[in-house]
Amino acid sequence: MNKTNAGGTDLSGQHYDATTIWLHWATVVLVIFLWGIGQTADLLPKGPLRSGAWSIHVLLGFATTLVLIARIVWRAEYGATLPPADKGALQVLAKATHYALYALLVAVVVAGILNASYRGTQVFGVWSVPKFGAGVAATRRSINDWHELAANTLVALAALHAAAALVHQFVWRDRLIARMRP
Which of 102, 34, 150 is nearest to 142 (CA)? Predict the structure, then answer.
């Protein structure tokens, strides 16, 4: 039996391509780990454990940058385009949410790179992110605050995005989540 969502759209049998799905879930996992490290690293005692956590954060941030670039290029050039899951206001809201998620990902990545560069962050004591600026504490805090604000907003919006997907799956039972499974 085909299921339809609140807008009457039949979503059965619609799937994104494997690369789109992989890039989506890689982004999800990276954002979760990065946000978790960002929230907890300074709770660790000063020394190798804390600097190691921040080194992992920086490396995963660079990995996120590469995944984000790949995701944007793939979506623009090769990715599958599926019909919208909803119509009307829900479609507009879904599209706006997706654009906002991409914009926030870009903002977090750019602010993160600026943050690591302004600090001249050491990665496992082996490599330093090329440093720029005079190291003024107020500027460093401002860059960090923007990075943190963008990351927190991204996580909050991603949680709403996930909640909407769960509503589709368990309330409307339209199999929307199946689009993101290979």
Answer: 150
Q: What is the pTM of this model?
A: 0.90
Residue 11 makes CB contacts below 8 A (sequence gap 6+) with 3, 4, 5, 85, 174, 175, 176, 178, 179
- Answer whether 19's CB lies under 8 Å from 71's CB: no
Report pLDDT digits (tens) over 136-175.
999 999 999 999 999 999 999 999 999 999 999 999 988 8
The SS3 of residue 133 is coil
Which phi and psi (to 5°) does residue 129 adopt? Answer: -65, 130
* Helix spans in the chain (H): 18-40, 48-77, 89-119, 137-170
The conformation of residue 4, written as its DSSP 8-state character, comes to B
Six-digit token string for 91: 């479609």
